[in-house]
Amino acid sequence: MKRIAIFASGTGSNAKKIIEYFQESEDMEIALIVSNRAKAGVLTIAEEEEIPSIIIDRAYFYESEQMLFDLKQQCIDFIVLAGFLWLVPKYLINAYPKKIVNIHPALLPKFGGKGMYGMHVHQAVIDAAEKQSGISIHFVNEAFDEGGIIFQASCAVDSDDTAKDVQAKVQKLEHEHFPHIIEEVIGNTFSQL
Ligand code: GRF
């Protein structure tokens, strides 16, 4: 059984979809939820699903290697970022090479980087009069949104779309694709070892 940790700090709609998806799996399970916001919706979901969770702060995450200790203690094999906005420190990247993935709500390399999250991304897409947007699932390295891209899916941006409209279209793609792509990546990662 491969054990997955989800790092999420937002409403957790992706985390919820991922948890639901892996409930049926015999090879992979969501074993831990990590959040840097005590009020994150994802923590309620974790409680409902009886998945252990950890609330972290900056000192814990950046000034010690306690995060790694806790992940190892929970025997975590793979990390999924689903709405986690902090840069992942080097000690974690080194400990989980190509075993951390993130989802970004736009077609990278466009509209990525620091400050490009949530509605800022969708507004930037509208302001640039893009004809399409979408999702990018990528490996995580030490820079924001710059690790190797694993998968992208796109949606049309219509001329009268607002940022909220784009967000809804992108979220639909996220929920549809993120769980099965995670499953595929984990399958590939561990079959090569
Ligand atoms: C998603 O749009 C994801 O692409 C981004 O953060 C958002 C998280 O949304 N990285 P939710 O908390 O899963 O609803």
Number of helices: 7
- Catalogue the unreliable spans: none
* CATH homologous superfamily grouping: Formyl transferase, N-terminal domain
N-to-C CA distance: 15 Å
Query: Into which percent range does the helicity of residues fall?
Result: 25-40%
N-to-C order of helices and strands: EHEHEHHEHEHEEH
Gross geometry:
globular
Rg over CA atoms? 16 Å
Estimate what percentage of residues fall within beta strands: 15-25%
Counted beta strands: 7
* Main β-sheet, spatial strand arrangement: 3-2-1-4-5-6-7
What is the structural class?
A: alpha/beta
Per CATH, the architecture is 3-Layer(aba) Sandwich
Identify the bound ligands: 5-O-phosphono-beta-D-ribofuranosylamine
CATH topology: Rossmann fold
Report on the structure:
The longest helix has 29 residues, at 163-191. A seven-stranded mixed β-sheet has the order 3-2-1-4-5-6-7, covered by helices on one side. 34% of the residues are buried. β2, α2 and β3 form a beta-alpha-beta unit. The protein has helices at residues 13-22, 41-49, 58-62, 66-73, 90-95, 118-127, 163-191, and strands spanning 2-7, 28-35, 53-55, 78-81, 100-104, 132-139, 149-156. It has 193 residues and is an alpha/beta fold. The mean pLDDT is 95. Helices cover 40% and strands 22% of the residues. Bound molecules: 5-O-phosphono-beta-D-ribofuranosylamine. 5-O-phosphono-beta-D-ribofuranosylamine binds at residues 8, 10-15, 82-83, 103-105, 174.
Summarize the structure.
It contains seven helices and seven strands, in the order E-H-E-H-E-H-H-E-H-E-H-E-E-H. The mean pLDDT is about 95. It has a seven-stranded mixed beta sheet, covered by helices on one side.
